[in-house]
Design brief:
The structure holds 3 protein chains of 3 kinds.
Chain A lengths: L5 H12 L3 H36 L5 H5 L12 H32 L5 H14 L3 H13 L9 H25 L3 H9 L4 H30 L2 H4 L6 E2 L13 H10 L6 H30 L4
Helix pairs in contact in A: 2-12, 4-7, 4-9, 4-11, 5-7, 6-7, 7-9, 8-9, 9-12, 11-12
Chain B lengths: L4 H4 L9 H45 L2 H6 L3 E2 L6 E2 L2 H32 L2 H16 L2 H20 L10 H25 L3 H9 L4 H12 L1 H17 L2 H6 L17 H10 L7 H35 L1
Antiparallel strand pairs in B: 1-2
Helix pairs in contact in B: 2-13, 4-7, 4-10, 5-7, 6-7, 7-10, 8-9, 10-13, 12-13
Chain C lengths: L1 H25 L15 E7 L4 H14 L3 E6 L2 H9 L6 E4 L5 H9 L4 E10 L1 E4 L8 E3 H8 L23 E5 L4 H11 L10 E3 L2 H9 L4 E5 L1 H6 L5 E2 L1 E3 L4 E2 L3 H5 L7 E9 H4 L2 H20 L7 H15 L2
Parallel strand pairs in C: 1-2, 1-3, 6-11, 7-8, 7-9
Antiparallel strand pairs in C: 3-13, 4-13, 5-9, 5-10, 11-12
Classes of the chains: A mainly alpha, B mainly alpha, C alpha/beta.
Chain lengths: 302, 316, 322
C-alpha cells in the first residue's frame, strides 16, 4: 500500500478547493435549470394526461366506441371514426410502406452516391420531411380531391394525402435500418457470387426487417394522429356509418375530436377528452409494438 | 512439360450466360422498380410546387404583389376583401417566437441532462416519456391549450396586458411544449456523438460537469444543435391545428400576445374548413398563403443544411 | 426471407379481416321500414348552414336508425358554401339560414339544378352577452348598427361609446363568418346591406367559438341562432332587441307571432328536384315533414307555425305525387 505524501495531499486539497464556491453555485443553479427543463416537459405531459382522464372519465366506457356520432351528446360515440381511421391508415400503410422501403433500398444499396441525381433525391427527401403537413393537404385539395384525380372527399383521397405526409419518414427510417446492417454481410454474399439484388433480397433485407418494421410502424402511427391535411379535404363531416369502400365518405379520430371540440354544447367536452384518451391509447399501443419489435429482433444482429 | 499456346492465349468471354443472365435481368428489373420509387419522391416535390404555384399565380394576377406585401389589412373572405398579408405573418412570428422561447431553453436543458448528467436508469425512463410527448396529436394539444392552458394558466398568471379567451400566447406555449421533444432528441443525438476524448480532456483540465457540458460538448455539437432548433422552428411555423383552436381567427397586428391572432397556417386551416369552391378568391388566397409558407420553410431548411455544413467543418 | 413473407401475409390477413368486419358492420337488416315501404338504400349528401346543422343532424340520425340502408352525411360549409356545392350538383340537400339569392338561383339554372325550397324551422337570431354584463338587457337596432357597422372598425371599442350610461368596458366581438347565412341575415337587417360589417371581430363558421368567446369575457358580445342560446343557458345571455316597437326577447312565441323584429327568420332547406325523385330522398323529406315537431323540440329549435307546417305537407304531397 503506497502512502500518500503530504505534497500529494496538498495538491488534492488545492484542486478540490480550486473549485471556488462561486463555480459550485453556478453548477448547482445549472443543474437546477436542467431539472426544471425535464420537469416542464414531463409535467406538461402528466398534466395533459390527468386533465384528459378526469374530464373524459364519465364517457370512458364501451358506449364510446360502439356508438356512432350523434347530435345528442348522451348518445354520441366514435365508432365511425375508429373504423374510418382503420380504413384510412391501413390504406396509407399499404401504399406508403412498399413505396418507401423500395426507395430506401434503391438509395442505400443500388444508387451510386456521387451521381448528381441521387444526391438530388436525398436532398429532396430531407426537404419533404420538413414541409408542414398542411401543405400536403393543399396538394390533396388541388390535385387529389379536386382537379386531376377528382376523387372527392373519400377514403382514398385521405390515404393518398397521408401517404405523401409519411413517405419521407418511411424512407429515412428504412435507410437507417439498412445502414445498420454490417457491410461484412454484403461483402460475404457478393464474394460468394450473388448479384447485388440477391444480396439485398436474401441477406440485407431480412437483417434489416426489424428496423424497417419499427420505422414503418412509427411513421404509420403519425398518420393516425394527423388532422391539418384532412381538415382541408372535408373530413369534418357528420358521418354515422363505417366506410364501405375506398370511395366512401369517412371521418377519422383526430377530426372526430376536432368536431367534439367545435360543438357548442358543453356536454360534448367530456366526449372530446374521452376520444382523446382512446386515440392516445391506440398510439401508445402502436409505439409499444414498434419498440417491442425493435428490442426483440435487433438482438439477433449482435 | 508441354506448354499449349492455343488455350493459354485464347480470349475468354466475360459475357454472362444462362442462369447468370437471368439473375442479372431480375436484378435490373428490381433496380428499375426501386429506382422508380425513389424518383417518385422528386415527383412529390414537383407536385407540391405545381399545386401551390398554379393557383397562386392566378391569385397574383388578380391581386397585386404591392397590396399583398404593402397593406396591413387581412380580410380576404369579406366583401370587399383586403389582401395585406402582414397580420398573419406577424401572427406566425408571435406563435413561433413564443414556441421557440419555450422549446430552446427547456429542450436543450433536457438534451444536456440526458447526454451529460443522467444515468442509464433515468434515461431509460425519460426517453420513452419524451417519445410519448412527441406523439401526442396536435388536436389533443389544441384541446389542452383551449380548455386548460389558456383559462387556468395563462389568463390567471400572465402579468402584462389582458389575455383573451383565445390567445396567441397560449397557442405559442402549447406549440413550444410540442416541439421540446424534437429539440431535445436531435440535440441529444448531436451531443452524444461528440467523442468521449473531448470530454475527458475537459475533466482532466479540472472542469466541472457543467463547464465540460457548456464549454466543450455544446460547441462541439453546435451544428447538430442548430439544425435541431431550425427543424423545430419550421415545425412551429407550420403548425395548424393548435393555433386554429387556441388563438382564434381574428388577424391582429399588435403588441399584445394575449390577444387573438391568426397565423399563416391557421388561416389556411380556417379557410379550408369553410370549403371554398374551386377558383374562387378564397380558394386562391389559401394557395397564395400556402406558397408563402412553403417558401419560408424551404428556405429555413436550406439555411439549416448550410449551417450544419459550415459548423461541422470547424470541429471535425 | 421466409419470416418476412410470413409477416407480410399475416399483415394482409389482419387487414383483410378488418375490412371484412367493416363490411359486415354496415349491412344490417332494417328492423322497420320508412314511410313509403320497402328497404331503402342510397346516399344523401347534405351541406350548408351551421345554424341549421344541429337540426338536420338530429333528423339525419333518426332517419338512419329507421333506414339503416341509407347513408346520410351532413357537412357544414356555411350557407354560401353549401349553395356553391349545391348549384354544381355536388350535394342533394342544402341547408340555409337565409333564402337562396337570385345570383345563386341563376348559377343553379345554368347547371340545370332545380332547387325546391322548404322551411324547416324558425329562428330568433340572438345577440348574446356575458352573464356578468349587468349594464344592458336591451339594445336598439341603431345601437347594434353603431356596434357592428363598417364605420365602427377600429373606432368603436368601448361600451360607453354605444351609450354613455354604459361603463368604460372594452368590447370584444364574436360572430359568424362571411360564408354563413346568419352573417348574411344579420348584416342585412342591422347594417342595411348583406355582407357589410366591421371586419375586426372574431369570425367563425363554428358557433362554439362565439359561445366560448362571449362566455370568457365580461365585455364580449356576439350573434348566433337561438338554439345555441338555449343549449348553453347559464354560459351566455340573450339580449332583448328593440326593432322599433319596444324591447322584445327572442323566443319561440315572439318569433312565431312576429314581434321579434327584425331578427326573427325562417330557416330553409333546399332539395335538388332531381334528387327528390329518388325514393330515399323523398322518404327523408317526408320523414322530416311528419316529425318536424319532435325534431325541432329535440334540437331546441323553434317549430313551424301551423300554417307553415300545413304548407310544407301540401308542397311535399305535390312533389311526391301522393
Amino acid at each position: 500500500m503506497t502512502s500518500v505524501s503530504p505534497e500529494q495531499v496538498a495538491t488534492a486539497v488545492a484542486l478540490r478547493s480550486s473549485t471556488s464556491p462561486r463555480r459550485r453555485v453556478v453548477d448547482a443553479v445549472f443543474k437546477l435549470f436542467l431539472w426544471i427543463s425535464v420537469g416542464v416537459a414531463l409535467g406538461t405531459l402528466i398534466t395533459l394526461l390527468i386533465d384528459l382522464i378526469t374530464e373524459g372519465w364519465p364517457r370512458l366506457n364501451s358506449d364510446l366506441v360502439v356508438n356512432m356520432p350523434s347530435a345528442r351528446p348522451e348518445r354520441a360515440g366514435i365508432q365511425s371514426a375508429i373504423f374510418g381511421s382503420l380504413w384510412v391508415v391501413g390504406t396509407t400503410a399499404l401504399i406508403s410502406i412498399p413505396t418507401g422501403v423500395s426507395a430506401a433500398i434503391y438509395l442505400e444499396e443500388f444508387a451510386k452516391k456521387d451521381r448528381w441525381y441521387n444526391r438530388l433525391i436525398e436532398l429532396n427527401i430531407q426537404n419533404l420531411a420538413s414541409v408542414p403537413s398542411v401543405v400536403y393537404g393543399m396538394l390533396g385539395l388541388a390535385f387529389i380531391a379536386r382537379g386531376v384525380l377528382s376523387f372527392g372527399f373519400t377514403v382514398m383521397t385521405a390515404a393518398l394525402i397521408l401517404t405523401l405526409v409519411v413517405l419521407p419518414t418511411v424512407v429515412i427510417a428504412s435507410r437507417e435500418a439498412l445502414r445498420a446492417v454490417p457491410n461484412s454481410l454484403r461483402h460475404g454474399s457478393l464474394a460468394l457470387g450473388a448479384t447485388e439484388w440477391e444480396t439485398v433480397y436474401r441477406q440485407v433485407l431480412p437483417a434489416a426487417v426489424p428496423g424497417i418494421a419499427t420505422g414503418t410502424i412509427l411513421s404509420t402511427s403519425r398518420a393516425l394522429g394527423e388532422s391539418a391535411p384532412l381538415l382541408l379535404v372535408g373530413a369534418l363531416t357528420f358521418v354515422t356509418f363505417n366506410p364501405e369502400g375506398f370511395d366512401s365518405s369517412y371521418t377519422v379520430l383526430p377530426l372526430a375530436i376536432f368536431r367534439f371540440i367545435s360543438e357548442a354544447r358543453i356536454e360534448f367536452r367530456p366526449l372530446a377528452a374521452a376520444a382523446s384518451v382512446v386515440l392516445l391509447i391506440v398510439l401508445l399501443g402502436m409505439n409499444s409494438i414498434a419498440i417491442f419489435v425493435r428490442n426483440r429482433f435487433e438482438k439477433k444482429l449482435r | 512439360m508441354v506448354i499449349r499456346t492455343d488455350t493459354a492465349l485464347a480470349p475468354v468471354s466475360l459475357r454472362a450466360t444462362g442462369a447468370t443472365r437471368r439473375r442479372l435481368y431480375v436484378q435490373a428489373l428490381f433496380k428499375g422498380l426501386f429506382g422508380l420509387a425513389a424518383f417518385l419522391t422528386v415527383g412529390v416535390t414537383i407536385l407540391i410546387v405545381l399545386s401551390l404555384l398554379i393557383p397562386a399565380l392566378r391569385f397574383f394576377s388578380e391581386v397585386s404583389l404591392g397590396e399583398f406585401f404593402g397593406s396591413t389589412r387581412w380580410t380576404p373572405l369579406f366583401e370587399p376583401p383586403s389582401f395585406g398579408v402582414w397580420p398573419i405573418v406577424v401572427g406566425t412570428a408571435w406563435t413561433t417566437g413564443i414556441a421557440l422561447l419555450v422549446a430552446i431553453p427547456f429542450g436543450l436543458g433536457v438534451a444536456v441532462y440526458l447526454s451529460e448528467y443522467a444515468d442509464r436508469r433515468v434515461r431509460a425512463i425519460l426517453k420513452p416519456f419524451l417519445e410519448i410527448l412527441a406523439g401526442v396529436p396536435t388536436v389533443v394539444l389544441g384541446f389542452f391549450g383551449l380548455f386548460l392552458v389558456n383559462p387556468e394558466i395563462v389568463q390567471r398568471f400572465w402579468p402584462i396586458g389582458t389575455v383573451s379567451t383565445f390567445s396567441g400566447l397560449a397557442a405559442g406555449l402549447v406549440v413550444g411544449v410540442m416541439i421540446i421533444p424534437t429539440v431535445a432528441s436531435l440535440a441529444e443525438d448531436a451531443m452524444t456523438a461528440v467523442p468521449r476524448g473531448l470530454r475527458e480532456g475537459g475533466f482532466a483540465l479540472g472542469g466541472t460537469r457543467r463547464e465540460v457540458a457548456t464549454s466543450v460538448v455544446f460547441p462541439a455539437a453546435l451544428s447538430g444543435i442548430v439544425a435541431a432548433i431550425v427543424l423545430a422552428g419550421s415545425r412551429a411555423i407550420g403548425e395548424t391545428t393548435i393555433v386554429l383552436l387556441v388563438a382564434g381567427s381574428r388577424p391582429t397586428l399588435g403588441w399584445n400576445p394575449g390577444d387573438q391572432m391568426q397565423s399563416m397556417a391557421s388561416f389556411i386551416g380556417f379557410a379550408g374548413i369553410g370549403d371554398q369552391p374551386t377558383g374562387s378568391t378564397g380558394y386562391l388566397t389559401i394557395f397564395a398563403v400556402g406558397l408563402l409558407l412553403f417558401i419560408i420553410t424551404f428556405l429555413l431548411n436550406i439555411v439549416s443544411i448550410r449551417i450544419v455544413r459550415r459548423f461541422r467543418e470547424v470541429y471535425e | 426471407m421466409k419470416s418476412r413473407t410470413m409477416r407480410l401475409m399475416s399483415l394482409l390477413a389482419v387487414l383483410a379481416l378488418l375490412l371484412a368486419a367493416c363490411g359486415d358492420g354496415g349491412a344490417e337488416e332494417p328492423a322497420t321500414t320508412a314511410a313509403g315501404g320497402g328497404e331503402l338504400e342510397g346516399d344523401i349528401v347534405i351541406d350548408g348552414s351551421s345554424t341549421v346543422t344541429p337540426l338536420i343532424t338530429v333528423a339525419a340520425e333518426d332517419f338512419q336508425i329507421e333506414n339503416p340502408g341509407v347513408r346520410v352525411t351532413v357537412a357544414t360549409s356555411g350557407t354560401g358554401g353549401g349553395f356553391e356545392k349545391f348549384c354544381v350538383g355536388e350535394t342533394d340537400v342544402s341547408m340555409a339560414s337565409r333564402p337562396i339569392s337570385e345570383e345563386e338561383t341563376g348559377i343553379c339554372e345554368t347547371n340545370a339544378i332545380e332547387p325546391v325550397e322548404f322551411i324547416v324551422a324558425n329562428d330568433a337570431l340572438s345577440v348574446i352577452v356575458n352573464p356578468g354584463n349587468d349594464w344592458t338587457t336591451c339594445l336598439t337596432v341603431e345601437q347594434l348598427n353603431t356596434m357592428w357597422g363598417p364605420e365602427a372598425e377600429g373606432t368603436i371599442n368601448i361600451w360607453n361609446q354605444i351609450d354613455p350610461a354604459f361603463p368604460d368596458q372594452a368590447m370584444n366581438l364574436f360572430g359568424a363568418g362571411s360564408d354563413s347565412g346568419t352573417f348574411d341575415y344579420f348584416t342585412d337587417e342591422i347594417n342595411g346591406e348583406e355582407g357589410v360589417i366591421r371586419t375586426d371581430y372574431n369570425p367563425s363558421e363554428d358557433d362554439n367559438v362565439t359561445i366560448i368567446g362571449v362566455e370568457g369575457d365580461v365585455g364580449a358580445v356576439g350573434f348566433l341562432g337561438l338554439s345555441y342560446v338555449l343549449e348553453n343557458e347559464g354560459r351566455i345571455i340573450a339580449l332583448e332587441v328593440d326593432g322599433g316597437n319596444g324591447c322584445v326577447a327572442p323566443s319561440a312565441e315572439t318569433v312565431i307571432d312576429g314581434s321579434y323584429v327584425p331578427l326573427g327568420r325562417p330557416l330553409f332547406v333546399y332539395f335538388k328536384a332531381e334528387s327528390l325523385q329518388r325514393p330515399e330522398v323523398a322518404a327523408f323529406a317526408r320523414y322530416y315533414a311528419d316529425n318536424q315537431e319532435s325534431i325541432t323540440q329535440t334540437a331546441l329549435f323553434i317549430p313551424l307555425s301551423d300554417e307553415q307546417a300545413a304548407q310544407q305537407q301540401a308542397e311535399l304531397d305535390e312533389i311526391t305525387g301522393d
